[in-house]
């Protein structure tokens, strides 16, 4: 069996920053720490912090007034920030800087009178926070069918933004559909997809054709990990998302398999190495 470890893979700078912020907070705090949503979308990371006393919540009602509250890497809406301030919570912001930049642009476009099309996955923590920056003028599209269903006037001032962890190919298809329907639509001044996400996708797109199987280490709720699987499948290769050694796709592997092993931006390198070592051992 040949196993290739993709490079780059795993933690991106935004994830490292968020984990460092929460780690520092855990070490210095002498009271319970609440995190609004999982700090990053990975089962192992969440469990590790839970063992250290961090409480992950999906509603501020689950935390007492005045508590230490950390915002996850995915960002939050202004409404959440306002409620936390009103309840005198001690907030710590671990939002990815790129997500902050997307929020800033959404507010700017809204202030300038634009309607905003956000390309993203419904219900994702990042998307919920971004839509909250301009709920009256922003709409979400996830597919080209969603674009076809839009009913803006043909002369509307329109701009689009993207969730940071999407597939480059997927966004391109949706943007093409938007441009055909609304030729005047404005692109953001920078590509909203995270550079780290793009690089990981490019490596999989380049290396997957040379391998029989692609294995992506990551949790099922990790958008960027799911996109890596999709990229591999788009070039005709079987691809599997796994969270641990026990999830490895045994039925797809043979002693002669050529395997490309990579990891989403929130997956710990320890899990990657554990899976790689297990494949070596067998």
Structural write-up:
The chain has 282 residues and is of the alpha/beta class. The protein has helices at 13-28, 43-51, 78-86, 97-111, 125-131, 144-148, 168-181, 195-207, 223-234, 269-281; strands at residues 2-5, 33-36, 54-57, 68-71, 90-93, 115-119, 138-141, 158-162, 213-217, 239-242, 258-263. The strands form 3 sheets. It has a 4-stranded parallel sheet, with helices on both faces. A 4-stranded parallel sheet has the order 3-2-4-5, with helices on both faces. A 3-stranded parallel sheet has the order 7-6-8, sandwiched between helices. Strand 6 (115-119), helix 5 and strand 7 (138-141) form a beta-alpha-beta unit. The radius of gyration is 20 Å and the shape is flat.
Task: Return the string of H and E elements.
Answer: EHEHEEHEHEHEHEHHEHEEH
- Enumerate the strands of the largest sheet in spatial order, edge to edge or round the barrel: 1-11-9-10
Estimate the global geometry from the Cα principal axes: flat
Mean pLDDT across residues:
95
Cα distance spanning the termini? 9 Å
**Class inferred from helices and paired strands:** alpha/beta
Please summarize the sheet with the most strands: 4 strands, parallel
Low-confidence stretches: none
Which percent band covers the strand fraction? Answer: 15-25%
Number of strands: 11
Work out the radius of gyration: 20 Å
Tally of individual helices: 10
Helix content: 40-55%
